[in-house]
Specification:
The chain is mainly beta. It is 10% helix and 49% strand.
Length: 69
């Protein structure tokens, strides 16, 4: 798979909350929680469920960094 996005994070699905049209898919990425909002159809097409290994591909036009004082 070739993509222009370079931010690829390997993770494991920990929870899927399926709505009528949209779903929240929770991932464990190196011990950190990440949540992806995708369509319910995509959940079915990718057969996403707890324990499935996935690659989260992040494409963002802006990244904001902050540092504690």
């Amino acid at each position: 798979m070739k993509l222009s996005a370079r931010n690829r994070l390997s993770g494991r699905v920990t929870k899927v909350t399926l709505g009528e049209a949209a779903a929240a898919v929770e991932l464990d990425v190196a011990g950190n929680r990440m949540v992806a909002s995708i369509t319910a159809e995509a959940v079915r097409d990718l057969d996403l469920k707890e324990g499935v290994e996935v690659i989260a591909i992040v494409k963002a036009s802006d990244v904001i960094l902050a540092r504690e004082d």
